[in-house]
Amino acid sequence: MNKELEFILRLQDSKSKDEAFKELLQLYKERLYWHIRKIVINHDDADDVLQNTFIKVYRGIDKFKGESKLFSWLYRIATNESYTHLRKNANRLQITDEEHQNKAINNLTADVYFEGDAIQLKLQKAIATLPQKQQLVFNMRYFDDLKYKDMAEILETSEGALKASYHIAAKKIEAFLTSD
Length: 180
Description:
Family: Belongs to the sigma-70 factor family. ECF subfamily.
Domain RNA polymerase sigma factor 70 region 4 type: 121-172
Number of domains: 2
Oligomer: single chain
CATH superfamily of the largest domain: RNA polymerase sigma factor, region 2, helix turn helix motif
GO molecular function: DNA binding; sigma factor activity
Shape: globular
InterPro entries: RNA_pol_sigma-70-like, RNA_pol_sigma-70_dom, RNA_pol_sigma70_ECF_CS, RNA_pol_sigma70_r2, RNA_pol_sigma70_r4_t2, RNA_pol_sigma_r2, RNA_pol_sigma_r3/r4-like, WH-like_DNA-bd_sf
Keywords: DNA-binding, Sigma factor, Transcription, Transcription regulation
Largest sheet: none
CATH class of the largest domain: Mainly Alpha
């Protein structure tokens, strides 16, 4: 039995679930936080989404069948929770998803947790101009350094489609950064 399967069984066993879940948090909370943060932009929102993600994982781990890697399943939940959060906020503010994204980028410099410089801010603005799927693919490949194979499992799409999305996104970002 491989280590991941053993770990999943510990997560699904009522006797070892809490201890195994603490290990899961330690293993993935930072990576998932930054994945979520790249989508929702704001630190406080990212914390909220991360918490919701782990609540969903805790409640749903018994239904996890191991048809994908645990890592892929966690990323998929975090991604879905992030987009749900963005939609809810946009609806609450009665603005479009794109307007919400632009507002978040414009507020980035006021975020005490943002440590980037002018170049980083411009890169974030360039990424914000991309359609959601291209943003996600670019962030996962460029910042998270995920392999296309892993991304395909997380996003449930083909590697070829992801490579094309990344290439198009990179070209758009390059055009944005070299304009002015």
